[in-house]
Amino acid sequence: MAAYRAPSLLQPHKTRQAIADAHTGEIPPLIGIFTAWASPQIHKVVAQLGFDFVWVEWEHAKYMKIVHDIHLVSEGRSAALVHWA
To answer: How large is the average pLDDT for residues 20-40?
Structure first.
């Protein structure tokens, strides 16, 4: 996923391109983790585990701080995907 990092941590991750490339077989499948916790501390730990993405339930991602923490703590290596239910 390093090739899909944004030029700056303040810019969005190139997740759509990574998903498209994984779908066409240009890169290996993306590996992620689902989280359903409302704790920013847990998300900071999960972000450092090296997954390609962290899937966050909207109920727990209402605080955009969680999404920003995942992006910043992983140094752009993990994309934060939010499930809107």
So the answer is: 92
